[in-house]
């Protein structure tokens, strides 16, 4: 960049650095009073930039509140992945419902409620069906003909199971949270390098003993 | 402290240059006392002060006239003391070091000792001064590098309002099992015999059968059995059919003895 | 922009929209697996962009943690006026401490003190760590196990550097042995140098007494 910097380069830098749209007036005020370009010159600089960037990935656009550089709208599919926020987590009720369907399929909502002890949220079932993890495989021949829910192949694929037999036996699951809680506790206590060794030791021993006792 | 007082005091130090008492204050000391305090405070330790003295007098760092520099150094340190500037202990340590070097340089050169083994008493000080000067310069160079917020700026362009695809949440398998385990904890565990593992295969087969058959059309009974699942698979499928029949979810139709059996899901109407 | 969008336009849009530097790998991961360009293609796209923007008010620069678009450094005087806050100035002690860590890493506080001749300001080290410009990379195996400090990628990014090699070269130090040898030679040649006269003269004066008292 030369010693004598062109107005449109300065405007370019300012518009790119700015965290807000800027009007011609605001742009001109960023120049020292001595060498302040007039409105026409700023306007000409903007037109130059709009021309320079017309085929680029960013463009100089005029919004209600001023000029701004903006990513070309065709690039949405790629750029929007940048801020793929970490997806929200499913609720515990969601996971419970899914796991009960997995183990008890085909099952009606009423039966899930009987196991969970609380009503099944309609939204949960809807979400599960939308995600194609469960589907209605039939209707139970009881009054009301409730839908029978079962898991899908997509469900198995997602969890890397070749069949439902790959699900661990329920007897193992019962004490799972205790084992998990203990693991977490151990992990919190342990520091840095030793933690790995300890974690391995813990996972090899304690939970197994517990599971043996439980089964 | 007036300028005159300052000068008097400095004369008391008998600052010597080339063996002669300094008739006048060094040029760099002709600064108003207020500024002097600020000036003295800018020194970042004894090496910095020494370097200043050396540079001010245009002396080659490799050939420091140790006596002269020592005297000037002491004069400055005394001034700092008098102005009750917070004087780091390092300044006094350096004064002692300088004095030691000075006295060693006064010792007559022993003609007996091997000249090559004799190290210039100033060598270590010169090394430290050079090293410090090197980083003093490096700090200035670092300050000159284009840096964010002063010379250069991060660019973050806005985007049109795209319809953002909402990513689906991830589910960890263990997490799901944990949820189930908690659910099971909540219910009477005696009921858990209803969901024994043994049933799983049958239940899976039930789901399979329900999926394979239709409400409005009959499916060939024999087509429901998958030979690739083996004998156990066939049995499980059969058990599943019986279970579905018992739960009135399917109906079986046979036109006559030994005729093909057909299966149909019971309509939900 | 055409239907078939060039890779460098996509990379351009992504880099302009991103609020952080992106590596070639991170850039490639924003493409769908089906049409994901390989490293070479991404690299070529970046080179294209660096060429396209070389005379513009913003430039595609390589930093330690990836590629980023940054406003040209010559535009600082205008762009910095966008914000009321004046750009931060750092004290000499701060810059010296940081430089010594940058050039001599990994280094202990004691070693920094040895170079600067004064104690290391605890607040400076704290600030450097808080800004994530330096971090503790280990502990020296000497009594007291002092922490070893080193600079981070954030430090390099801040100073527009892609690696430590980009730091300005240290000024040369004259070889000490050589210098010492030279000094001795000179001393040997000169029978009665003026410095010796000076030294003798000075030794009789008051300052010597003062020094004796101090030592």
Number of helices of chain B: 9
Largest sheet of chain B: 3 strands, antiparallel
Strand content of chain A: 5-15%
CATH superfamily of the largest domain in chain A: Winged helix-like DNA-binding domain superfamily/Winged helix DNA-binding domain
Radius of gyration of chain B: 48 Å
Strand order of the largest sheet of chain B: 3-5-4
What's the total number of strands of chain B?
5
Architecture (CATH level 2) name of the largest domain in chain A = Orthogonal Bundle
**Strands in their spatial order, largest beta sheet of chain A:** 1-2
- Order of H and E elements of chain B: HEEHHHHHHHEHEE
Q: Looking at CATH, which topology of the largest domain in chain A would you report?
A: Arc Repressor Mutant, subunit A
- What's the SSE pattern of chain A? HHHEEHHHHEEHHHHH
Shape designation of chain B: rod-shaped
Catalogue the unreliable spans of chain B: 1-25, 188-197
Number of helices of chain A: 12
Average pLDDT confidence of chain B is 75
Instruction: Give the low-confidence spans of chain A.
Output: 191-215
The beta-strand count of chain A equals 4
